[in-house]
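[#protein-structures] MJ: dropping YjbF family lipoprotein here for a structure pass
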Amino acid sequence: MIGSRTQLRHAMTALAVLLSACGSASEQLGPLGELAEVAASSIRTGRAEEPPLVMPEGAIPADVLAQSPEPMIALTLGGVQRIILSAAPYAADDQQNFQDQNRRGIRMHEGAVSGTYGFGIDLLAVRFQRDDPVAHPVPLIQWPGQVDREYQYRQRDLYNYSIVVSCVFDRVVRENIEVIERYETVRIVETCTNQRRSFENTYWVEPDSGTIRRSQQWTGPTTRPVIVELLRASAEG
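AK: finished. structure tokens for YjbF family lipoprotein:
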């Protein structure tokens, strides 16, 4: 059994090299990509399931806002304590980079995570539809029922690939949350699927503005979701 699994790994490595020689790839490209995905999944069977993430509790002290006049978030990775991050100065309002001193962090497109830094296989970009309310905020009553989204990656061998999913929004419940202060929000669960995978994102949305105050978002097949809390939306003048 061990020998056969080793041979299968070698075969999949050769297949990955063959695919990378063809340029970028997508999960929707066809049988070669599907074969690689199925075989890789069979190799990974038996891995322990990740424990569920725990939402942060309690409001963040308002005096943290004095650290910077820039947009600010609290980031929770893998259930570890909140990290307070400020956006890089002079960034566009809809594309903001939040990084720590080790240049590890995320890029935000409004309420959507659109890039990661220092996570291993990083999320390079996300292609959003114009009516995607996570990236283009609108009042909750105007949210569409479904959007398509493309997540783009580059592996360590510089092989590019993308994951295209269709995402359906489901309004769950009204819920008060504490971030810097107490907010009245509606919790939205978004289920994203394609032929090979399914994952969920959760958003706590202010219904009148569409502002996402807290979210738990998927960033890739090899990383745990991140929890993002909005502390300040725009730079102070």
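MJ: nice. The CA atoms of residues 15 and 36 lie 7 Å apart.
AK: one more thing. The chain has two domains: 2-44, 62-232.
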